[in-house]
Structure prediction request, 890 residues.
Amino acid sequence: MDYFLIVPFTLLAALFVFGGLAASFLVAPHRPGKVKNSPYECGEKTIGTSWVQFNVGYYLFALMFLVFDVEAAFLYPWALVFREFGAVALIEAGIFILVLIAGFIYAWKKGALEWV
Amino acid sequence: MDSANLLTAVAAAEPNAKPREKADRAAVQVPVGNFSALMKRLRNDSAFAFDMLCDHTAIDWSEQGSFELVYQLYSTVHGHYLMVTTSVPRVNPIVPTVREYWRIAEFQEREVYDMFGVLYDGHPDLRRLFLEDDWKGFPLRKDYKDEFMLERPE
Amino acid sequence: MGIITEKLPCYIEPIPGGSLLLTSMDAVINWSRANSLWPLTFGTSCCAIEMMMATGAPRHDTSRFGAEVARPSPRQADLLVIAGTIVRRMAPRLKTLYEQMGEPRYVMATGSCAISGGPFMYNSYSTIRGADEIIPVDVYVPGCPPRAEAFFYGLLTLQKLIKEGETVRKPGVRRKPVLSALPPGITLDQIRAEMATVLKSDAIVNVEQAAKKLEKESQDGQCESADGCCCSRT
Amino acid sequence: MSVHITTLDDRVRLRKDDSSPLSTQEYFVNMGPQHPSTHGVLRLVLKLDGETVREVIPVLGYIHRGIEKMGEHQSYRQFVHLSDRLDYLSALINNWAVSMTIEKAANIELNDRIQVIRTLMAELQRIQSHQLWWGVFGMDLGAFTPFLYGFRDREIIADIFEETVGARLTMNYIQPGGLMYDIHPGFVKRVKAFLKYFKPKLAEYETLLSGNVILQERLRGVGRMDGQTALSIGATGPVLRASGVPLDLRKSEAYGSYGKVAFDVVVGKNGDCWDRYWVRLEEMRQSMKIVEQLIDNIPEGKHMVMKPAVKIKLPEGSYYNQVETARGILGVYIVSDGKESPYRVHLRTPNFNNLWAITETAANWRLGDLVAILSSLDVVVPDIDR
Prediction:
């Protein structure tokens, strides 16, 4: 039953996010125009297209970040309760982190992190 | 060296370079024909070593019907100044560019083209510097008429 | 869609007490808009330095008036401060920037270049004589460059205009004439009359005569310098 | 050789040279007229490859007011106030440049008091200009605190100027034939108080920003420009001295009363952003040294050698004179035909040449480094467009 506190917490978060959006949706005047919708580039018209092939390094870097971000997210709940489970939980998390570090070293050696 | 023997040295280097009077420093006037040769010598000859083009601009002598192009040179080695001028007719003003001697000349020449309409032979990227590309006329000419410009009421 | 601002008023107004609800809603919305004007950093020449000193610098600071967050992009700004000269090549860009700002947007022309072309009014083939030839301007702050205090006075005038001039149905304050910003009890004709006399009497500003007049006043003790010390320019 | 006039559109066009379908393509981005880090309306068309800048094409004219055309319709005395609006961060030195050209042409003799006050004012304006540059340089590299420190100390000099000149930014103080007003009685006291206040503050600047490892990492070796390139694009002032060329008009021409004071020209070694940064900080110290030597013995005398109402007419001829402003050499070129207003006025502005250093040094650096290079050149845009 002590999980009940999550409900007001999510409600408050939702209110905070959607409240702002709703207020501007209700109050702000909405007058789209051709110039207003055109892309802003320091007051100038854009030159050429921006759909170009760019370096793959950006995508790999983002992917690496995603992996380790999710890893950190998994470790939070583990950190709260691993004291009750003793050594087993520790070894468990150790393996989890080691596997990820192996992946990291592989990516590093393959040059995913070399910047252009 | 001071301006006196600088003038004689330049006269020796370039026979038909006459000193330009009414100037506050050593000044030389050169016909357009051998203008580029003189500039090359002034830049590369170690006696002159003018490694800095301080300023390049043009004067519109509308009565005489000619543009006078003024180049202010300075040498950081010897520390002396020289003003080189050449004049071209107002109708079809073409002058050889001095871009390969001083890199800044490319942009100063673009400004003079933009303001006076002087064409530079051999300039890699000659276009207007300040005004829109489709601007009619050259503003700094004495006979430039523009209805947008407001005269000061006497 | 701004349901409250567009759709609702015509339903609420007829019912009794509806207009009271509308005006109180006006007051709340205008109060919130007036006190959080985010200026767009748009400095072209010398006034930009004075604007930087006014908005960001430690001595004069606009965060007291809620206008401290200077946004570089027009999408997040609602006050366009024109600080500097507008030339013919910049005019279309200025118009694009103005149109790319979200409604309700306000324009403050600071400096005599933005008001009337300033020192570049005559004999210049490329200076626009006044930014109001391109975009509608709400508040004019004279000066070359205007001091930071003049900028604050312009800001306060704009805030007063927003709070009293705007209704929900028709945003934008341009309808109310700027004269409402005049100090109470002074009308435009008084100003015109006084200007006419001043221009006629001392057409040529004589430096020595002005200095002597200033000296006479400081002898009578009416010196009102900023930091209190009695400054008499000898 | 032919004369071929191009336009911006075909200058800004991608050459089709993608050798293999896998190679990354380049694209154009406008670092346009309204941009927080261009300090004014300078538009740089950047040819980018991912995040790396391949080429920078500056596009100017967004603040071109035609000052040279206006100069032909104004008398000599009226032209001085236009020189404030060029490089408004060294307004007093610009006034001095125009006034000195006119005085040399009409050979007006000045007494010592005027020369010393002019030198004092010029050096204070140089310190003030470097303070603003230091503040905005920190802000461009992402540190907001230097902006506040720099402007806080800048206001003190603005008070000194306001008390004597009456204006904070556009001074119109140094006129041909002397000064508009004599210095205010409180001037010497305030300047001494400022010197005592600012010396430890400059050391504070060093610890706050120079010692910062991130800043060193972002500046050392970035945007390197050697002496020869700097000379060929005509860069002057701190940008040229940072590349190792010791050209300082205050030393070589010794105009005003620079001949009577001891100061040394600050020269950098390898012309990268760090040297340009370090040279300006050191120049602030030198300027303070000059002010210290001059502030105690300001000679007596009149502040105006010529009645202000006297019409100035220059004899026929062309006059060119250069002065060292905070950003480089400002040359004023006046061609007079004996009338009251000049036949032709041309201003050789320092920022015009310093700007083109960006095209020399910014290739193959990343976008963040481009901002650092541009800000280290300390470019004021109305000075370029005039």
